[in-house]
Amino acid sequence: MTTQEFLGKQNFTITNQTVSESCPSNIALIKYWGKYADQIPANPSISYTLNHCKTNTSMEFLADEPFSVQTFLAGNEEVKFAEKIEKYFKNIEHYLPWILKGKYIIRTENTFPHSSGIASSASGFGAIAKCLMKLDETFSGKSSEEESLRKASFLARLGSGSACRSLYNGLVVWGKSEEVVGSSDLFAVQYPDAEIHDIFKNFNDWVLLIHEGQKSVSSTVGHGLMKTNPYAERRFQEARENFVPMKEILKTGNMEEFIRLVEHEALTLHAMMMMSEPAFILMKTGTLEVINKIWDFRRETGLPLFFTLDAGANVHLLFPNNGSEDQIKTFIETELLQHTQKNGVVKDVMKF
Ligand code: PMV
Questions:
Q1: CA 312, 317, 320, 324: dihedral to nearest 10 degrees?
Q2: Are 334 and 342 in contact (CB under 8 A)?
Q3: Is 319 helix (H, G, I), strand (E, B) or coil?
Q4: Model's pTM, two decimal places?
Q5: Is the CB of residue 33 below 6 angstroms from any atom belonging to ligand 1?
Q6: 336 lines ligand 1 (CB under 6 A)
Q7: Cα 15 to middle of ligand 1, angstroms
Q8: I want to staple 153 with a disulfide (CB 3.0 to 4.6 A). Which of 7, 164, 179, 266 is the partner?
Q9: What range(s) does the Mvd1 C-terminal domain occupy (predicted)?
Q10: Tell me: the pLDDT tens digits for 205-263?
Q11: HSE (CB half, 13 Å, CA atoms) of 245?
Q12: C-alpha–C-alpha distance, residues 297 and 317, integer Å
């Protein structure tokens, strides 16, 4: 598939509309870090879609008014976000030819705390792309649900790369991988359900809010620094290669190898940050304390509690519901919660 497939129809009729959509966040297991022009990822990635961490968005479109965007986050007007969305809309006009022919009032709310440091761009752009596809169906005619979702994923990617994975439930792949049939750099695809062992279908992700608030380096800047990172090519290659064991692990249910691979990916992401020029570190003292405690706990109990990290200090605690979850939850509450800033934890599960 090429971008040509996503060009919009030139025949459309616009009318005043209000649409609403909701989209969850996702957490990558094999990470995307580094990109080329037009939001093409430097390597494929695979993520779990979350269940509770969502963005709910309503989009009011006023036809034939001069193009402008007004955004409200949890009821408060956000001018900076509106500027970002305006730029985004101008950038996707080829794919939605009606998009600059009206005024937008976008109201958006996250189900997770605003200042938590949980990235809202994946769920946020996912929800916006879904709203746009709803408007497109009204203005340009209906397409199949599959096509519409794929285009929503394509459009979400142009807003924020990892957002394209949030359009699908379960395990989701974005980026061309020889290991995943139908995978593409342009949009995400669902990892085939029949290829996933049951143990991976009932999983928890508890996000420990180690540091709430703004990150010192944005992911846009972080991706950019991969361009001059001397280890970048090796990293991209490794991420591609990691799809081989990942495929086998997902099929066989090999938890030990899953844990090894997922933690390795998280630490590699942060190692890349430390080896960037200029270097930066997003982990905090609490992040390292939690990681060490998790490793001690696993050594002592053998229970499958492990972590991943996104581009921030928060720790995503991953563990399956396989009978040991009560012991793990008690450990988290008594030993790990103390390393958060304000006893903050967002308890989520993977959405299948
Ligand atoms: O989609 P972005 O630009 O916010 O980048 C996401 C990068 C990571 O969260 C660190 C990894 C990933 O694959 O989601």
A1: 170
A2: no
A3: strand
A4: 0.97
A5: yes
A6: no
A7: 36
A8: 164
A9: 207-333
A10: 999 999 987 788 999 999 999 999 999 999 999 999 999 999 999 999 999 999 999 99
A11: 17
A12: 13
